[in-house]
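Q: What does the assembly look like in three dimensions?
Context provided by user:
Components: two
Sequences:
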Amino acid sequence: MRPRLFLHVVGLEARKRLSYRFDFWIQALVSFAAELGIAWFLWQAIFHESGKTVIGGRTLDDMVLYYVAVILVAKLARGNLFAVAVASEIYDGGLNRYLVYPVPYLGFKLAQSLGTLLPATIQLFAFGAIFPFLVKGSLAHPTAASVAMGLVSILVAHVLYFVMQVCLEGVAFWADNVWSLNVALRLVSGLLGGIMIPLAAFPDAWQPVLAALPFRHVFSDPVEALLGQRTFLAWAGDLGVALAWTAAFTLVARWVFRRGSYAYTGVGI
Amino acid sequence: MLRYLRLYGAFVRFSVGKSLQFRFDFFFRVFMDTLWYGQYLLFFDVLYAQSGTIGGWDRHRGYVFTGALFVLDAMQMTFFSNNIWQLPEAINKGDLDYHLLRPVSPLFMLTCRDFAVNSAINLLMALGVLLHALLSYPHPLPLVNVLAFVPLLLVGLFIHLFLQILFLLPVFWIHSGAGLRDLLWTMDPANARPAGIWKGWVRRMLVTVLPFAVIVSFPVRVLFEGPQPEIVLHMLAIAVCIGFVVAFLWRRGLRAYASASS
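A: Here is the predicted structure of the complete assembly.
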């Protein structure tokens, strides 16, 4: 897919997202505050009732900063696949029009998916600029370099999560309704990727499992890079692993779509 | 009333037939909810590894709370969720017209028509988790506590249902339900945390105006502490008040409804 066309699709989708202003402000302010508030009260209770000052290597302030970052990063990494609607296009036959477009389907969908990120990107920069001044964590030392590393990690994380979702959405070639598979991915990745609990707070026995799964590269690694908690070498190593996972899932997604296209009837299921 | 029960029986029969047609969806949804249970059990397990109590409840009480949460969620998914999710679309696309023309309450049709058979299987699993949590609870639970807990959990179910409708009804006026739906999903975990973690004005808000903290935590409190009149009356008052607000907004919404152009 030509870069100019790719960027054009990204721009079209971004404009579409910003046209729903009420939704934008609700998601930008109220949803963010609610999500952060729930995490804050939970961890405040845990710190207070356990009598600990450090959990999983983090103080309460570090924990708050982590949640600010992970909530914002998760919005960018997950994107909005409902807006991209791969499974529903397979299910209702909407895929037909892409078969005659002179563009690769998955490339087109990735461009759309990236376009949906504009509201979340604005939120990341707005809140990300404010919170380090409001909450002083002992672990967070964001610098221009760490922010740049974090942004690269977020971009890779988005592509990785996109191809994981597409693999599941592709099941729609054979099954009638697959949204629950994406919810399952969301649940598993949310817990084992570090959205619900920072990965360092898991017991030691879980650490090798968490390290072996791809989910940490989607949420936890970009957050730690963004907050300046990764050296360049450690970040580069993690990024390499994330890219390897992305390549592996891309191959699976292409295989699923190739096989699925044989089963596709063009009139939906 | 009898007519509505017969109608609901017909809804269940149609839903069973439909679920047998969509077999993959049936198993995927059972799988999804099972994963959700696993996710929450692991979540609380990790948290309790860091602290002996959370919101004043130890691991055993936390486990009972989790079981009650699963049962409430499974009932919600079985009886109401499929219907509630379609409410904004029905309003926006004008499908509400068909319900308004029928000689039964449109709100009944919109909230009860689809019975999720797959979630009924998860309801059995959730009841199993709750039963295990109750049986492994190390202290005796008086029968009166259990007898008060069960109906209060049902009151919690209706409070949860009314809250969901309340978040979706503004679609009559603002035309896009996505933002409010996301907000509801973001706030919903507030009912999945022990009420003891909330402090100050946030606690007051979550037990009155937006009573997410009441839904599961209050019935579970009754299970441990006995049926204190203030808790029982509080839950009933919340359910009645929020029910009236939903009924009021529904009537106002219908006045603003302009069929497919809504």
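Follow-up: Chain B has a mean pLDDT of 90.
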